[in-house]
């Protein structure tokens, strides 16, 4: 079977019962994605499949042969961090670090959802796109952090979201 | 062989070299040194080490809470493709996890079943999937036995345990008389439920034998005592066992002692001649590691008309397995937090057939200070004294139980600074009297205190000819910041930029450290690094022909008089030294503790009783702060544990068999992003000469101490409802809410 992970090709023959999470951790050596519960309850296993965040423990590997899977390793490296990864370090958005890859992948997916105007449970209206702290907290609540770096994670995400928004604005102004 | 620079803390340190160093890196809020690895998914946790011919183990549990195993039927499991074997060893498996710091194996033997979920066998297979399927097909046949499953209705069976961290019972004066003579009293019962640490990384061990030597990559907090426990369980010499834990995905007490997966993996690996990896499922973590005991607490306060306490009583009943001495020391802080001549603090255990109870973040204070600090709030109301003022009035001159001085104590200053920052004076004082739309608004305060401990700890530090330093110790970093603060201490002591220090942790091949527990990690292991560096400074001074006192180390250079030389040029082929700290008389002669004050605002929905924590100010004094950024994170983390304790966390036991009913993260509710506001965290400047040469005290458990009580006091202020049964879920509030 053929898988595309972080833009790289992998040929593996996993058990049909192997979750996408275990494919990553046990078969292709990408252990950055973490297992906290194996039941879709903690978010530690969050990866991006075709750009959308999912719990990789809740889906079977064999269902993803035609998909683009992005894991934490695909976002950046220790020497060349993705802006969210760098913001997590600056704001101390983790302690033990075990929930962290899931938090970061989830944040990437979440920012994209917000940029597309998808509302959340706490959105005041369907077209108010402001990404307040309350919105970030709500949208990130599927990712548990028992070390409870939550306030710092929100700061890290907001910094990157604000930076991206500023960049968009500059871009739009330049285009105008 | 390197020199060992030892210090036993028999007297206060007169001065700390750190008061004179000039690198200016210690205390600074620098980023975690291992941060880039963690955020990039490149930090390797224990389950993630690869081995040739690695087999996967899956634990099999006892289905009943009491009885005896008659047979383990494994034929169906063995027929599953990929299953290698089903292994059980009724004498060799451990019954339960070990408590932290013990040097022997925990209770051995699993034929007699003491709790639902007791691991009794292990299925080993070529793949995780096959092992899991095999485990589901194993039948454990038991003959039922008699068990006792809860405290309720059995309080009078409680027995006095052996003394633990504190005496099980202590009595001074005449509390009953103080209560009878008092102008105002509180006398009430509080309950707290079982809880689980719920670290996001599950317990795991990979066991690999090389001849008669065993290496375990295991998610553990205290490697040198874990190694002793494991060696004892397997009948090995300590030297035959190595434990490695480079990164640990949280522990909070649950990974202090070895757990059943570790011994099972080692036995299976030995029998099969292959490395075996056994990761607990989340459900197994809940059932077969360790819980915080449920508690029944009677709290009594007696005060005169001016609010001065004349008596304090704190009587606690906890639960634990037969044969386990550990008791949740709920009265720990009650011994010294407030003045009062007549005191009674007791702990008794009811024996139950339930998962082991042991240490979870701030054993004692985390739940004991709920009752104490709620009772202080009730007393303040009875006396019509501001609760901050009541605490100030009862500041003791010295430890009121032991009549020894406090090493340093800034509780009153924490309360003052917190009150000012929070705007405590502006709060509404009438319970139920402030409303914002659909929400009742309340404010609460509680004190925080956590005893400071020192444990024996050793580290080796070397300086290379390139002018780099390497720190080695078997200390762990479970998210506490050990890699970073140990690097900062070495950098400060040796005058190096932090980038020039490499810290190697989590391997029993390194000198034995205190491990991560009891908030002693930074103070103990940090002191050993300090002492090693002190010895290195002497060597550097000697080869520089300077007095150690006249030597300045900065930016990789040694400076004395008008000479300035790169450090690497003074170390020849390289130098190294070991540091060893030992607790001494300071542990007895003075009372050492960290202090803090919590102020919070809660909103309670006027119709549903839903509680939201909206605002938090926490002020803490814990001696020298080693890294402001990681220390702040520790405090936030502790406070959020307090939010969970106050509002959502309850491990429910089936009263028929003691089983953990809500044994996963969907049903056991830890706080999520949406439950946690931004927090204003402040530190007071403090140095504690009695604690250790760093003059630092513990901080990892300070945040949780008292935090939940502040929330529940705020709920009372918002609603006028006193709830004494934790957690305060909305069903406990709804009947008492003010009319809408
Ligand atoms: S491991 Fe997938 S959600 Fe927890
Ligand atoms: S950093 Fe430890 S669980 Fe989030």
Structural key phrases:
heterodimer; A: 176 residues; alpha+beta; Ubiquitin-like (UB roll); DNA polymerase, domain 1; 2 domains; 5-stranded mixed β-sheet; 5 strands; B: 740 residues; Aldehyde Oxidoreductase, domain 4; 7-stranded mixed β-sheet; 16 helices; 25% strand; binds FE2/S2 (inorganic) cluster
Task: Summarize the model shown.
The complex is a heterodimer of chains A (176) and B (740). With 176 residues, chain A is of the alpha+beta class. Chain A has helices at 20-27, 72-75, 83-90, 100-115, 133-139, 150-175; strands at 2-5, 8-11, 46-49, 52-55, 68-70.
Describe this structure in words.
Chain A is of the alpha+beta class and 176 residues long. Chain A has two domains: 74 residues, Ubiquitin-like (UB roll) (Roll); 93 residues, DNA polymerase, domain 1, CATH 1.10.150.120. In chain A, 39% of the residues lie in helices and 11% in strands. Chain A has six helices and five strands; from the N terminus they run ββαβββααααα. In chain A, helix 3 crosses helix 6. The relative contact order of chain A is 0.14. The model of chain A has no long low-confidence stretch (mean pLDDT 94). Among the domains of chain B are: 157 residues, 2-Layer Sandwich (Aldehyde Oxidoreductase, domain 4); 238 residues, Aldehyde oxidase/xanthine dehydrogenase, molybdopterin binding domain (Aldehyde Oxidoreductase, domain 4, 2-Layer Sandwich). Helices cover 23% and strands 25% of the residues of chain B. In chain B, helix 11 runs parallel beside helix 12 and helix 14 packs across helix 15. The radius of gyration of chain B is 26 Å and the shape is globular. At the A-B interface, helix 1, helix 2, helix 3, helix 4 and helix 5 of A face helix 1, helix 3 and helix 14 of B. The site of one FE2/S2 (inorganic) cluster (FES) has 12 residues of chain A, from loops. One FE2/S2 (inorganic) cluster sits at the interface of chains A and B.
